[in-house]
Structure formats: C-alpha cells, structure tokens
Amino acid sequence: MRIGAQRLAAELGRDRPPQGVQYCWMEPGEVTSVTAGAASDGNDLARVTYRGVTADAAYLAGYTPTVGHVVVLLIQSTGSVLILDQVIGTP
Hints:
mainly beta
C-alpha cells in the first residue's frame, strides 16, 4: 500500500493529473459562452475555459452561468466538467 501512495504522490507532483485511475480535481475556470436552451435537458449550455482548454460544462441548479464569471470546476478524468459555483471576493 505504501508503494501505491508514493506513486500517487509522485504523479500528483507532475504538471499533469495521475494516470491509469479514475479521479477528479477542482480548478478555476472562466465561463466563455452561454447558449440558451442548447443543453440536452433544455437548459442553457455553458462553455468554460481552464488551462487553455475549452469544454462544455454542466452546472448546479442554484447557479446561473454568465459569460465572464470565474468559477470553480470539478473535472473528472472521464472528461466531464461541472461548474460548482462562481468565485467572488478574490484578492
């Protein structure tokens, strides 16, 4: 078990996420576009950018995506992106 923990620590220390295991991480991003009614459930479709990557993102019901918002993203190794909420009050 210790060897696995050391390998995971080494993977996390790299400039990219760990390989070979499903995982998720949080990262800041920016809402770059919102298309009304374009999501598969009929809601607005939000597109976000993080680390130079652009992706469509789901969002929680309590958040209204707005272009220019800085948001917290939950990114899964499977490629799914979820907006958790808007970031406010940053220095």
